[in-house]
Amino acid sequence: MSGLESLAHRLRPAAGEPEGALVLFHGRGADENDLFPLIDYLDPERRLVGATPRGPLSMPPGGAHWYAVQEIGRPDKQTFEPTYELAGEWLAAFADETGVSQERTVLGGFSQGAVMTYALGLGKGRQRPAGLIGLSGFIPEVELDLTPPFPPIAIGHGTLDPVISVEWSRRAKETLEAAGADVLYREYPLPHTIDPGYLSELASWLSRILASTAE
After folding, report:
1. Judging by DSSP bridges, how do beta strands 48-53 and 57-58 pair with one another?
2. Splitting the chain (215 residues) into consecutive groups of 10 residues, what average pLDDT does each group show?
């Protein structure tokens, strides 16, 4: 399969002509339905076309995966690299299909999806998106381009996370800010999950990005 059919996904159309796009990548063992409700939450006015692709791998303990987990911080090369290439091709097809360029697309994700977001948004030779949202994840040790200009970046992480320690997001914040990025960073006293309060803040953040890209 090629184009948009290369990854199973859900699409949420914009109310009219889309002002941009929002693509959310799910975490390990979930699927395209997991983060789909967040599109309406983050973009209640439906100014954006939204999508949630499904990871191409099936493995224990079930659900869909973007790569095999061997250690935190360094995705398994044999599974990550084919997925990275496939996801990049899918994003290009999504841009062609919707007419919304990757420069007007905000990428976001939770856990493994945050890792994919960092890789696809900051990968060497890739177009910069309009913004990045990394929730409960880490910047992977893969080939990245950490030179400015950067898109706006939002990071959120629970301080009680037993799966991926909050230290990984603290490190991501330090790395990105040292490189010149504008980072909206929040911690919250929760485990490996998403803070609803932070989502409200992200909705406003997203509106500001839309306003700036429209100028």
Report:
1. unpaired
2. 85 96 97 98 97 96 94 93 97 96 96 98 96 98 94 98 98 98 98 96 94 74
